[in-house]
Amino acid sequence: MTSIRDALIYQRNELDAKITERYIARSEIIRGLDSDLIKVIIGPRRAGKSFFAIHALKSMVPFGYINYDDETLTKTSDYNDIIEEVNSLYSRPKYLLLDEIQNLDKWELFVNRLQRQGYNLVITGSNSNLLSAELSTHLTGRHLLTQILPLSYREIVNTYGRELTESENKVRLSEYLINGGYPEPFVKNLVYSEYLSTLFESVIYKDIVKRYGIRKPRTIDELAEYLVSNIGREFSYPRLANMTGLKSAHSVKRYIDFLKESFIFFELERYSTKVSEVVKANKKMYCIDNGFILSVAFKNSKDRGMLFENVVAVELLRRSRAQNSKFYFWKDEQHHEVDFVIKKEDTIRELIQVCSDPSEISTREREVRSLIRGSDALGCKELTVITDSVEKIEQEVWYGVSRDIKYIPLWKWLAS
Predict the structure, then answer these.
(1) Average pLDDT over residues 207-225
(2) CATH no., domain 153-300
(3) I need a surface site. Which of 151, 251, 275, 371 has the fewest CB within 10 A?
């Protein structure tokens, strides 16, 4: 049986190797690294949280490293034994990096105690609900939160060390739409489909089925496959219950909550100023990385429109935290629909329509009509259509209402 010390020695060797591996710089930074506030990094498994933290801390040598994705450490009843071994191996480090902390029972009490003992703590976790709920309860006012998602398009093109031409950007974008932005297959030139299908299955069965004791794991697996195959389409819990064979809408909501907590999916609500309408309205689901769509979806077709829309949704999720904004979709009773409504504070700042090919007349008229209707209803004149290659600002008119609409290629919008 592996001892605590053996496990930590193995992890230290892993840490030494990670420090020397190729690292792609991220746009985010860890604020207050020198402060005594607890630095919390959340995000999907394998999105690069550990590398991000390690490279932020590597100038703070020595720092101790504990990865709780190891049953030897999570099964230990006396957490002091782990800290004693860390102090021995790392010469009583001031900084501690605690990886995948959600696997540790009553982790928040342990973290609080370490902070009181004077350790400067950086912790990572792959379960959004567990961390956010316990952070707000136990670490209020004493933590700083950073979210790390798979690589953005901008972070990937920055690895080339020069400004890419328009044609090069289009090639890179086509790859990004299909492969997504998980760092490891990008850096190590792995087969994306194999890597991501294995990761998806691991999250379902390790982070959800095992943690929550789901008795029929195939049910949540099928639900996840359905959702990833229907990105950006409206859904309701009762309808999903009928389609998946789950007993009730409550069961569907519970399973979807698990999938969201594990950062595989995120929901988008329909915009309304009335809370009751928001609660009753259908929602949309998006996937945290485009690579899952082609690797997991049961209809393995390259629906370019869906891939475009999901990439935009993920980028808006990334920007919403950085810009302290929120985003929704909008639809009126006549079924005019705007893909994304950007709201900051109490103001609608921008309406975004995703249309990879606006050259087809009926498609363009539908998108423009919905934007103008949305602009009129929501009082917003900042209107954008994200396209494949069209770039211009054009005055559009619909039933006497005139608006300037900005058309911008997706690669340029993502790189901005």
Answers:
(1) 90
(2) 1.10.10
(3) 275
